[in-house]
Design a protein that fits this description.
Spore Coat Polysaccharide Biosynthesis Protein SpsA, Chain A; single chain; 3 domains; alpha+beta; globular; 8-stranded mixed β-sheet; 10-stranded mixed β-sheet
């Protein structure tokens, strides 16, 4: 039965729920949705794990196919063992009356279906180092059905979720948004039609100044100045939203908003759901386009030096003050002309640390039962040019009766610069091993590193140290690296809270050269968390946080410590230019399997209880962007925020 419907001018979003047939939970199933109607429609399923208390499978169904006069969409999906019902969301022109069928498949049919859907990506899995090959193949094939799903086009998203009707306009008026308090500066460096398009989009009650030469900036007199480039068009409600944001963000001295693009036919396309402004994103031109609102008096010294170029002027104003005074208005308020793809900023040369190089203590927890540990240590020693580091190989428990471990430890003792620490723990606990080893560390900087991680370039460690020591102009408190599978596909590009309905690595299984939406896959940026497979921080920060929480014995301990650091005001940065291979789980095995399987639900529930707000609303991710794996920074169907919920300042609820 339908649970609720949201209607746009043309499209509708309808929710349905159905009980699973016997035997479906815990198995791979073919889910098929059938619609006896013409016109465009799309469907998405959500499967809930009742034990974990969260949606754990969320994916769009595949392309529509016509059968017996009706359209069908289907997906191959593994349903959680503890799930009892399946939710269905349909986006359609007009009312929806879908037929839902769930069919349990035999293992052989599942294997054949997965191979059929994922075979095009298998050659990429087979390339590169053989270590981790099985895990790569499993990940590629397992995600293939979801990645083959078909989401509605952006026009449907606009119709359903970016509508500004009577309710939204009335709420803006009730909130007291005064558009007349803002002066608009339109920088004229384009054609006359482009300038006129921008001027037409400015509300009549606003003062407008056209900036043709640099001296024109001096004519501005408003308290708040909205900077727009000729050719950029404001949404009808944009100035009122900026006015409300200026009032609701008392410490802000610069406010940016999201943009989309105007296609050749005049239609809207390519939305940019931007992260909040941070020093790393401002280092390039990522945030240069679109409407920015600036407090004139706070930037009084800067106005006289601005060029008659909107992009450069906006960046100069944004960089002029502390990053903490910059805020994000998470609404699409400007439509900008399409431009050629933006060139990514070149990575700065690695600093040449010599006598001033702080000591880095690499802490590598390990069971020391896989030969891969030796390979990792040798690559670290041979492929690291940073001059001042030590390696602490923290063994959970040294067992003289374990011949395999004893053989590896004999070889380890011959390696220069490697210290062996026996933590004497009867059961492996990743957090406890890191905490125990940190007590023996001599370095000012700690680098938590997995025993299945190896660097690509010799300057990797120098680059990480540069972030923490402020060599790039601003200090980062915790730095994570971009990690790649052995075939060059992305394994870690920062952690997004709420992704996959808990937290997940961004851009997983993307090609190494893939820029990602808006180029974000290759840009340094502030994030909520990074993986402890390669995580650097100052020792005093680690100690002030009490180290890792040992209640997270296997996983999520890295997410927890990053969130605690962020809560204390620390900056966590994803350094996209620092790359290492991560042969994930080669030594220890998959996170939750065997004797560790029972820990998953416990640790997940603990993270959800402690960090519910961060999971519901990652401050460095966009509330309108998707939380489905593989669709990071793309439109969410539905988004967690609407124009009306933003105006009313409603708190985002967990998914």
């Amino acid at each position: 039965m339908p649970q609720g419907t949201r209607a746009g001018e043309k499209f509708r979003m309808s929710r349905f729920s159905a009980a699973l047939p016997p035997g479906a939970a815990g198995n791979w199933c073919r889910v098929t949705v059938r619609m006896e109607r013409a016109g465009g429609w799309w469907a998405k399923i959500e499967a809930t794990d009742d034990v974990r208390g969260q949606v754990v499978r969320e994916a769009f169904l595949g392309p529509a196919r016509t059968r017996a006069g009706a359209a069908e969409r289907s997906i191959l999906v593994h349903l959680p063992q503890a799930s009892g019902r399946l939710s269905l969301c349909v986006f359609s022109e007009g009312p929806a009356a879908p037929g839902l069928a769930v069919r349990v498949l035999a293992r052989r049919r599942v294997a054949l279906a997965l191979l059929r859907q994922g075979w095009r990506r298998l050659p990429k899995a087979l390339r590169g180092d053989r270590h981790g090959l099985v895990g790569r193949m499993r990940a590629i094939l397992g995600l293939a059905p979801a990645r083959g799903g078909e989401a509605p086009p952006y026009g449907v998203w606009i119709d359903l979720f970016d509508r500004w009707g009577e309710a939204e306009c009335a709420a803006l008026a009730e909130a007291g948004a005064d558009a007349g308090a803002i002066e608009v500066a339109v920088v004229d460096c384009a054609t006359r039609p482009a300038l006129e398009a921008s001027l037409r989009s400015v509300p009549a009650q606003c003062r407008v100044r056209v900036i043709s030469v640099a001296a024109d900036w001096a004519s501005l007199s408003g308290e708040w100045i909205l900077v727009l480039a000729a050719g950029e068009v404001l949404a009808s409600h944009a100035v009122a939203c900026f006015a409300l944001a200026a009032r609701c963000m008392p410490g802000a001295r610069g406010i940016s908003a999201d943009v989309d693009h105007l296609g050749a036919s005049g239609g809207r396309t390519l939305p940019h759901f931007r992260p909040p402004p941070d020093p790393w994103l401002l280092a390039g031109d990522f945030l240069a386009s679109g409407a920015w609102l600036f407090h004139r008096l706070a930037h009084e010294r800067v106005w006289d030096c601005l060029p008659a170029d909107a992009d450069q002027a906006r960046l100069a104003l944004a960089r002029a003050g502390p990053a903490e005074t910059l805020q994000r208005l998470p609404l699409i308020l400007a439509h900008v002309p399409e431009k050629p793809p933006r060139a990514l900023p070149r990575a700065a040369p690695a600093p040449d640390f010599r006598g001033d190089a702080p000591l880095v203590s690499m802490i590598i927890p390990s069971a020391c039962r896989s030969p891969h540990v030796l390979r990792c240590l040798r690559r670290l020693l041979d492929n690291t040019t940073y001059p001042h580091f030590e390696i602490l190989l923290a063994v959970s428990s040294v067992n003289p009766a374990d011949r395999r471990q004893a053989r590896i430890l004999r070889a380890v003792r011959t390696l220069p610069g490697v210290r062996l620490i026996d933590c004497a723990m009867p059961v492996f606990n990743f957090a406890a091993v890191n905490n125990a080893a940190s007590v023996s560390a001599a370095g000012e900087l700690l680098l938590l590193l997995n025993d299945d991680v190896v660097p690509l370039a010799p300057d990797w460690l120098a680059r990480m140290v540069a972030y923490v020591c402020g060599q790039n102009g601003v200090n980062a408190d915790i730095v994570g690296a971009r990690l790649l599978y052995g075939n060059g596909m992305v394994q870690h590009g920062g952690v997004i809270m709420g992704l996959a309905n808990l937290c997940e690595h961004a851009f997983r299984l993307a090609d190494r050269a893939d820029h990602g939406p808006q180029g974000l896959a290759l840009l340094d940026r502030q994030v909520s968390a990074v993986t402890a497979a390669c995580m650097m921080m100052r020792r005093r920060l680690f100690e002030s946080l009490g180290g890792m929480d040992e209640e997270y014995a296997i996983a999520l301990n890295d997410v927890d410590i990053c969130l605690r650091a962020g809560q204390a005001g620390a900056r966590v940065v994803m350094a996209a230019g620092v790359e290492l291979y991560h042969y994930e789980s080669v030594s220890l095995g998959r996170h939750y399997q065997g004797t560790r399987a029972h820990l998953e639900a416990i640790e997940v529930r603990r993270l959800k209880n402690r960090w519910a707000a961060a999971i519901a609303a990652d401050p460095f991710y966009h509330p309108c962007a998707s939380l489905e794996l593989g669709r990071e920074f793309q439109p969410g169907f539905p988004p967690r925020q609407t124009p009306l919920s933003w105006i009313r300042q409603e708190t985002l609820a967990p998914h």
